[in-house]
Amino acid sequence: MAFDTKTIALIVIALIIGLAIGYGVAAVMGGGAATTVTVTPEKKVYTIGFTLPLSGELSSIGKIWEKVVKLAIEDLNKEVQAYGFNVEFRSVILDDGTTEEKALQNVQSFAQQGIKVIIGPAASAQVKAVKSYVDSNKIVLISPSSTAPTLAIPNDYVFRTVGSDAGQAKVLATLAYQEGARKVVIFFRNDEYGNAFADFLKNYFEGMGGTAVKLPYQTGLSDYASEVATLASKVQSEGADAVVLIAFDTDGANILSHAAESDTLSSVRWFVSEGPHGAEELLSSTVGRFASRVRLFGTRPLFIANPLYEDFKSKMVQKFGVEPGVFSENLYDAVKLAGWAILRAGTYDGEAIRTALIEVAKTYYGPSGWTIFDNAGDKAQQDYGVWAIIPGGPKGYQFKDVGLYERGTIIFLEQAYS
Amino acid sequence: MGERLIPGIQQAVMNAFQYTLFYLIFSLPLTLSYRTTKVINFAHANFITYGAYVAIFLHGVLGLNNMSLAVVIAFLVTGAIAVINNVFVFTPLQKRGSSPAIIMISSMGLWIAYKYLLYMITDVAHYYTTKNFVSYGRITYSDVPRGSIGGIEFSQALVASLVAALLIVALLYLLLEKTKIGRAMRAVADNPLLAEISGIPRSLIVNLTWLVCGGIVGIGGVIWTSFSGAITPEVGDSMILQVFTVGFIGGLISLLRTGIGAALIATIENVGIAILNTYFGTPVSFRPFLTFATLITTLIAFPPLGAGGGLPYRFLRRGSKK
Amino acid sequence: MIGFDVVGFLISWLTLFGIYAILSLTLNLESGTAGITNFGKVVFYGVGAYISATLTTYLILMLNGVDVSETPPYDIRGVILLSELGKKNPLLNIGLLVSSLVIAFVMSGALGYLLTYPILRVGPAFVGFTLLSSGELLRIFLQHYEPVGASKGLMAIPTPFEWVADSRVREAAYLGLVLGLLALTYVVTHKLVNSPLGRTLRALRDDEIAALCLGKHVPRIKATVLFIGSGFAGIAGVLLSYYLTSVNPNMFVPAVTFNVWAMIILGGFGNLRGSLLGAAVITFVDRILTFVTPQLGITIISPDYLRWVVVGLLIVVVLLVNPRGILPEKPIKTPALDVMWEELRGESK
User: Fold this and answer.
1) How many contacts (CB atoms, under 8 Å) link A and C?
2) Core-most of A378, C44, C180, C322, by most CB within 10 Å?
3) Which residues of chain B neighbour A320 with C-beta distances below 8 Å?
4) DSSP H or E run through A388
């Protein structure tokens, strides 16, 4: 019997120590507890829940988003106070590990604390897992980055401040065609994102008169050298003149690094989706040189030359020393929309906030441009920009937005590669 | 040459060669450690990851891209981890007479703990440098040559892994065959009790084995950073199944067969999938499928005798039992 | 914090606990009692989930006259239809629930039975790896198989109680279902373990060769154990799919299996109540963390990482200190045991 008590004691101690270490470390280094603002008695506090991928597959972007949230809440509070509202918005951030189960747990926890507006999760698979719960419990959910076509469902509580990939696929197809590609190999992630994108891309590209061959690759592998070799042989056997890569950051960087070693792949054009944009791994010298050699261009959701976006970008760099990665501006606007919708609704009730949100979005213009929603609650007007990897910047290479998509053509605002 | 049969075959063969070298560096120590200690060590995956991250932190936090330095430090770090695991976990469990299954499960606990400890370290490093360590790009080293000989491109990774693999194979051979320590290791592997009785300091030899095995894999991890395009703390995990497959082909006993296994798996993964894709249109995304299928086939067709395999069933004939 | 919905918390925690407890009980049966180191538990879980997902989505569409070759359930139009049609016919939903449970049990069980063959001839480490690899093989296959949504998976799965208007009542009813099935699993595993068969299983775990020498038909016993364990894991999968209303292949990765392993190690090998305790503790700590971590402000280190480090260390610590876990393995309760105790007590009086 003494053995059992000892064991139980050991385990309890371990758990306590673990939590204490976490708390201690956070307190010492993280700047303490949640924002301690002296609140005057009448000030109303509204809480917005955030479920972000701070660990797991999308954690590199998740970490940037955490900072975006901080900035957005700060700006939101300044804005509403400037308009004379005696309210304060608070954020509660939870990590969902880019998994479905944790996303649902986080959403439930928020619901159980009485929170009616949640921003996140990042991945479409996660949104699918929480949709039923938020619909049943009348909680407004805004995802800044889920782009799966199967979630474009009207009359639900799920909103997305990002345009569907169908739009981006059209832009990418136009870019490739305009740059002279007529036969492309589409090299894409074999997951929801990659499959949908590749389907749209093939349709659009072939509609323009080109031909496209699809080549999916498995995700989550440690290395893609073998896949790249197969890609090279495919390019050679099909006589393709370009590769379109639809990837995330880790696999994208891996693939591009290996492609740099292949003569075949270094002599065709490369076009990339938004996934790898902003990721540091692509700024290594291997990839940078490769980008120049093949004159690599990518597309991404962006309102280029939008002064609000430039402002947002410089604030991020100033305050946190990071460039806003992909979807950061969509997240920022989601926060603003959520805040104003809560105010406009008048009551902290899910149904009212939902109606208010649609109204607010109709007239709101932010770093991500017009935020108006379509019938399915997704961003109706999404503009796209073109990016390149050029020499310069603190890491040796940097991302540069060099063009935009306008009415069926790509307009380059500057020359990226000489 | 074979270009017309399978376009790009040259690249696939080069990759197969490169991977053989990596698998040799990762799997030979696995076989050696199992042979000497009889522990199936899941934490082997951590050796790869920690080795790679030694190089990454040297590069990302301190700005050093010196492979010789990284290799030495990685050897010490991963070797130390291996010894710590043994001293604090494996040996006490063995002393208590725990079954191999329990020890294997404890190594699973260690594997999880070390992996997420590394994640925590990357978080701290990110806080201080604002760099992203969860996904890190390829490192170009300043002290590793590269070039092309006779039309074949020798990347830094190829040069480094070739040198490392040759040295490791040679040193292991010399160690095990020619030195007293090596003979002591083999004695402990074959019959621990007898070895101890004849005066061999068993725990010292075992710890030394762990140091060497863990360290060698760590070196492999460093070299991996010059090959892969993006390294994450999951790198060890995504390779561990292939590494174990290679080890199983060698029965976790025979170093020679492990070497053959390395070449076999590397070829299947690179050339095999290329062939399947060209002639049968198998999607390239099926590659892990091939590896697992090989693993299962190996386990079913050639169940490793050495690793406590199902001895009783080897001699059972159909119809002779009621 | 505005208010705290205790009832909601309990319902959401206990539902997840129930599902994981079923997994823990069956894993303890296989690995803790019978010594089959099952590292592939997640595959039976996934098979069950996919069976109920596929069956429910396809049948609800087909029985309502929708042509699934035109509008499959993984297509956006199929999804919208599912949300509408899912509420119409309570009997249909319940019927699908029952059939999913039965079919999932049979098929997952059959898969477990089949996988016994390759693992018979190898030792514990290889059993683990073989099952793990088979799991990954199946997962990769599912990722390519179009009819089950390939990498997209299936969503908007109509739940058994979809037709209930009030969401709280719906959740409570579902919890009841989960706990009911948990009770069933417990009774079955308890009966199995506390029987002469249970004693044989422990003999298998502790010394397989000796058991063989004593004439026990080891292959058949292992196959039976894997059949039952996998079958109930399939049931847990069915419950998960209705709970998340969506499935996709990436939900069924080896990490899930290792999580369940942590639960049974914590609770104790061979001790069924221990598995319940382990599952309860780990799911509870996970839930509580979501309430505690926001209090820490922006953390340098993601608490999720800390949680896993603690889990890993816990496994090691528990094995070192007391391999039997928090609750020790009890002797097998068969009628013979009761008789023996009685006699002993009678004698000493």
Assistant:
1) 183
2) C44
3) 130
4) strand A384-391
Question: Under a CB-based contact definition with an 8 Å cutoff, are residues C175 and C11 in contact?
Answer: yes
Q: What tokens does A316 get? A: 């991020």
Å from B138 to nearest chain A CA? 7
Q: Of A138, A172, A53, A124, which is closest to residue A378 (Cα–Cα)?
A: A124
Q: Is residue B312 part of a domain?
A: no
User: What residues of A are in contact with residue B277 (Cβ under 8 Å)?
Assistant: 230, 233-234
Query: Is beta strand A397-406 parallel, antiparallel or unpaired with respect to A409-412?
Result: antiparallel
Test C144 with B285 for CB contact under 8 angstroms.
yes
What is the nearest CA distance from A113 to chain B, expressed in angstroms?
Answer: 28
Average pLDDT over residues B87-113: 89
Contact B283 A253 (CB under 8 A): no
Q: Convert the pLDDT of each residue in A261-272 to its tens digit.
A: 888 899 999 999
**ipTM score of complex:** 0.84
How many folded domains does chain B comprise? 1
Residue B113 domain-assigned (yes or no): yes
For range A111-123, the mean pLDDT: 92
Strands (E), chain C: 154-155, 246-247
Q: Which of C118, C212, C309 sits opposite B312 (nearest CB)?
A: C212
- Name the residue among B170, B168, B176, B138 with its Cα closest to residue B55: B138
Does residue C292 contact residue A106 with C-beta atoms inside 8 Å?
Answer: no
Give yes or no for B108 touching C (CB within 8 A): yes
Tell me the per-residue pLDDT of A135-176, one tens digit each, with 9 for 90 and over.
989 999 999 999 888 888 899 999 999 988 888 999 999 999
- Comparing CB atoms, the residue among C156, C285, C321 nearest residue A10 is C321
Is residue B167 situated within a structural domain?
Answer: yes
What's the average model confidence in pLDDT over A322-336? Answer: 91
Q: What is the mean pLDDT of each run of 10 residues along chain C (349 residues)?
A: 74 93 93 85 93 91 83 84 83 90 94 85 76 86 85 85 85 93 94 85 78 78 90 95 90 90 86 90 88 72 84 89 66 74 72
| Cross-chain CB nearest to A229 (options B8, B119, B285) | B8
Secondary structure of B214-276 in HEC code, one letter for each residue: HHHHHHHHHHHCCCCCEECCCHHHHHHHHHHHHHHHCCCCCHHHHHHHHHHHHHHHHHHHHHH
CA separation for the pair A309, A316 (Å, rounded): 11
Q: C50 and C142 in contact (C-beta within 8 Å)?
A: yes
pLDDT at A210 over 90: yes
- Find the residue in B nearest to A227 (Cα): B284
In this complex, the residue of A222, A255, A280 whose CB is nearest that of residue B239 is A222
Instruction: For helices B100-129 and C303-321, give the axis angle rounded to 10 degrees.
Output: 150
B307 assigned to some structural domain: no
Flag whether residue A285 sits within 8 Å of chain B, measured between CB atoms.
yes
The residue segments making up the domain with residue B210 are: 2-300
- For residue A223, the chain B residues in CB contact (below 8 A) are 227-229
Q: Which residues in chain A (352-381) have CB-CB distances under 8 A to chain C?
A: none
Nearest-by-CA chain C residue for B115? C309
Whether A318 and chain B come into contact, CB under 8 Å, resolves to: no
- The mean predicted confidence, pLDDT, of chain A is 86
What is the tens place of the pLDDT at every residue in C45-93? 999 999 999 999 998 888 888 888 888 888 888 888 888 887 888 888 8
Judge contact between A181 and A377, C-beta under 8 A.
no
User: Do the chains contact at A253 and B229, CB–CB below 8 Å?
Assistant: yes
- The CATH number given to whatever domain includes residue B282 is 1.10.3470
Tell if the CB–CB gap between B106 and C128 is shorter than 8 Å: no
Chain C contact set for A21 (CB, 8 A): 306
Beta-bridge partners for A211: A183
Ordered by where they begin, the domains of chain A are: 44-162+327-370 (3.40.50.2300), 166-302+386-412 (3.40.50.2300)
Size of interface A-B (CB pairs under 8 A): 143
